[in-house]
Amino acid sequence: MSDNIRTMNLIGIDDFSRPVYKCVETGTLYKDVELGNQETPELCDCSNDFNGEPCSPISKDLDVRFNDKVVPDTNKNKFNYQLLGRLQSDCKYYLGNGNKQSKFLWAQNEKEQIEKMKSLYASFSDEEKPEWISLDEILSYEADMV
Questions:
Q1: Which one in 6, 22, 45, 53 has a CA-CA gap of 20 to 30 Å to 15?
Q2: pTM for the model
Q3: Where are the beta strands (DSSP E) in 1-146?
Q4: Which of 136, 141, 137 minimizes the C-alpha distance to 112?
């Protein structure tokens, strides 16, 4: 086997959603700084620490082969679900421990916060609508906040 071939095994995902690979030949850990979103992972050394920060890119002279890779998330709504969840959490805090202070809202304005929630909710098809919040709940937040 050639000295410039490196075979990578996926060993997990770190707390920042970066896939972590272990080199079969050297035991060195590398992180994909593109978060698994590229066809070919962009690997950086992480001081052989699963939770370490990515540092130096892997040498371009190496022929890197992957036994397995992260499958990119193709859910086009993922960000919108996450944002809607964040906005809902903000509303709960605002109405509870936040003492109705708009500085704790993502939009920093009650009306804009609710409008963004309505817009996000409307952007999902009927099959894609989240089960954890309904339009009625958003309207209830609106009644309590605006």
A1: 6
A2: 0.56
A3: 5-13, 19-23, 29-32, 43-45, 63-66
A4: 141
